[in-house]
Each structure stands twice: as structure tokens, then as C-alpha cells.
């Protein structure tokens, strides 16, 4: 059974009443919301940008991705499918900090890379929040991502990716020379050195 699509203000009320946390069980009823997240991270409702950042931040707390790659806003009482052009978040800033404590084999953890999204959430690159790069098969153009939470990624903006590439080291692998960047105890492959 499908519910009628909610308005953003009705969804916001449901989120606030339900605690605004992702991960709770999906209700039986579902519908499609006329909402879309553009490749640049802009949220749209009925084709118009949602101008209130706080509202988008609230919606992001209940955003989930199913095993088939579909995106949903899920409250305790209803869920609705939304469209995401690429990734639901965009990493717009990178911070380089020092690792705390000891890494593997007693080494200093060195630099730790954290990323701020367009909705002002921070995520640190680590084993659970991996950096990955997908290359367009036709153009070879890279699309870099960092895992934000669950199955949700943030597209790393072009300017931030250039900063990230500046930190990369060339390493020899079975696949040839690769650019690799480190965050804490983890190393992330950015692609071929050339």
C-alpha cells in the first residue's frame, strides 16, 4: 500500500517526533516523494531547490540506501523513495590532522584526513569510511568518493580531490605505479600515477 507523498514540512514533523535517526525498521507503507538530490548536493522538492539548509540536514538523518541502490527517506511511520543523481552528499572541505595514539606495528598514525560535507557533517577516512575512485570508462575522468555512513557516499568535490592528490605518494604495485594517500592506519588508492 502506498501513502500519498508528504510535503517537506510534514516529513520534518515526522522526523522530529520520531527522533530523526537513520536505521530504524522500515514501515510497511511506502510511497514516492518528488524529491531529488543533484550531483552538486542540492536537494530539490518538485523540481525546486530546498533553500533551507537545516531542513536538508534534517532529511539527511533519515536517508537510507537499500541493497538494490535505491534511496529512501524513512521515518517511524512512513517511507518514500527519492532520486539521487550521483551521491547524496558532496565533500566540500578537507582537514588534515595528526593521528592520536599508535598505529599498526607501533608506528605513529601520521596524518588523518577528515572531510566536511555540503550539509556540514564531518567524516574521517578510515577502515569504515573508505576513499574510492571510479573512472569513467569513456573519458577516464575520476569520480572520487568517501563512504559517509552505511551505504551512503559523499562525492569528493574537484577542488578537494586536487588537495587530496597533492598528498598522494607514488607506489609500485602489481598494477604499476599508483597514487596512494594515507589517513591514520589506512591507505587509499587514488588511481594510476600517470
UniProtKB/TrEMBL annotation:
Pfam families: DUF1285_C, DUF1285_N
Residues covered by the DUF1285 domain: 27-87, 88-190
Domain of life: Bacteria
Entry protein name: DUF1285 domain-containing protein
Organism encoding this protein: Hwanghaeella grinnelliae
Amino acid at each position: 500500500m502506498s501513502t500519498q507523498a508528504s510535503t517537506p514540512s510534514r516529513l520534518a514533523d515526522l522526523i522530529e517526533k520520531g527522533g530523526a535517526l537513520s536505521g530504524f525498521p522500515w514501515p510497511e507503507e511506502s510511497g514516492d516523494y518528488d524529491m531529488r538530490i543533484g550531483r552538486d548536493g542540492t536537494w530539490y522538492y518538485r523540481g525546486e531547490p530546498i533553500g533551507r539548509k537545516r531542513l536538508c540536514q534534517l532529511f539527511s538523518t533519515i536517508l537510507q540506501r537499500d541493497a538494490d541502490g535505491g534511496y529512501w527517506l524513512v521515518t517511524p511511520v512512513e517511507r518514500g523513495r527519492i532520486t539521487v543523481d550521483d551521491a547524496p552528499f558532496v565533500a566540500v572541505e578537507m582537514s588534515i590532522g595528526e593521528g592520536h595514539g599508535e598505529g599498526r606495528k607501533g608506528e605513529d598514525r601520521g596524518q588523518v584526513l577528515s572531510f566536511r560535507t555540503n550539509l556540514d557533517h564531518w567524516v574521517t577516512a578510515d577502515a569504515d569510511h573508505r576513499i574510492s575512485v571510479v573512472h569513467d570508462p569513456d573519458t577516464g575522468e575520476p569520480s572520487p568518493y568517501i563512504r559517509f555512513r552505511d551505504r551512503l557516499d559523499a562525492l569528493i568535490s574537484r577542488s578537494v580531490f586536487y588537495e587530496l592528490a597533492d598528498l598522494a605518494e607514488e607506489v609500485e604495485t602489481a598494477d604499476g605505479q599508483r597514487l596512494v594517500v594515507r589517513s591514520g592506519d589506512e591507505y587509499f588508492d587514488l588511481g594510476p600515477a600517470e
